[in-house]
Amino acid sequence: MDIRTIGVVGAGQMGNGIAHVMALAGYEVRLSDVSQEALDKAITLIGRNLDRQVSREKISQDERDQALGRISVTLDIAAVGQTDLVIEAATEQETVKQKIFDSLAPHLLPNTILTSNTSSISITRLASRTDRPEKFLGFHFMNPVPLMQLVELIRGIATDKETYETCLGVVERLGKTAASAEDFPAFIVNRILVPMINEAVYTLYEGVGNVRSIDMAMKLGANHPMGPLELADFIGLDTCLAIMNVLHDGLADTKYRPCPLLTKYVEAGWLGRKTKRGFYDYRGDEPVPTR
Ligand code: NAD
């Protein structure tokens, strides 16, 4: 199937990155959110990130202008339904995602492919509530989208071959690489990565190390480019907690229990970089550990 227009639902850190790379690859993008503030922020951020690519000579000024010109923003979900491919990238809560697919339903074109950028939620379950489970796929980008090479593609039990291959074609047009994952809680990357982050939070909770020593230990001792707590702040602590809950509920194994300290940070609204406070405080010039 020929994909020309892409609807992105949710203009947070993932949605704006997805809109950015899609527009640069030549797709017409409609980006929507429930918050006008999120849309305004997303357009400013996309412009700034494209400028950075121009200054690094990755793209030309003309490519930058054309890409920005291909993105329109809207609060109206109906406009997003009238596209060839929808990528849902809203908050990691199943009820939020279900409501989005419910409200998209009356506005879809007959062949619109539906996808979700969920980090962990069952693709089969999300698909089963739509009128087209065979045209539903997990389309899981990594953060930050313009820089990360991988996209996980997750087939639900009903996903057909054409849908998978069409989305694979989109990944290739982006110049990215797809990894195919089966539809089990958190798929491949987050099944491995987020329990490691949760374990780092337990290490902090039990006083084995402080924020700086834990991050330094994993950077210098395991050659990770970012420490696990720094990475948690980057992903968003609400998203990390949501993924641990999906693993815990879906696999019914106590090894996935979310650390109470992670829950506490989320309850405080200290969600990491996006709220300027998490395991580090980002309100000053330099990040300062909060523990
Ligand atoms: P975020 O908090 O930055 O953004 C979520 C956005 O969704 C917000 O702008 C919010 O206003 C919007 N939203 C909420 N309800 C909505 C609705 N009903 N309709 C439209 N928009 C709505 O979150 P994020 O980090 O961009 O994560 C989005 C999705 O991407 C989640 O499913 C997450 O698991 C997944 N994901 C996140 C990462 C990461 O590192 N953060 C990586 C891969 C995938």
Automatic annotation (TrEMBL):
3-hydroxyacyl-CoA dehydrogenase NAD binding domain boundaries: 5-183
Q: Which domain of life is it from?
A: Bacteria
Q: Which UniProt keywords apply?
A: NAD, Oxidoreductase
Please give the biological process terms from Gene Ontology that the record holds. Answer: fatty acid metabolic process
GO function terms (MF aspect):
NAD+ binding; oxidoreductase activity, acting on the CH-OH group of donors, NAD or NADP as acceptor
- Could you say which residues bind NAD(+) here? G10, A11, G12, Q13, M14, G15, D33, E92, K97, S119, N143, K274
The cross-references to SUPFAM superfamilies, in alphabetical order and at most eight, read: 6-phosphogluconate dehydrogenase C-terminal domain-like, NAD(P)-binding Rossmann-fold domains
Residue span, 3-hydroxyacyl-CoA dehydrogenase C-terminal domain: 187-282
What is this protein's name?
3-hydroxybutyryl-CoA dehydrogenase
Protein source organism: Salipiger thiooxidans
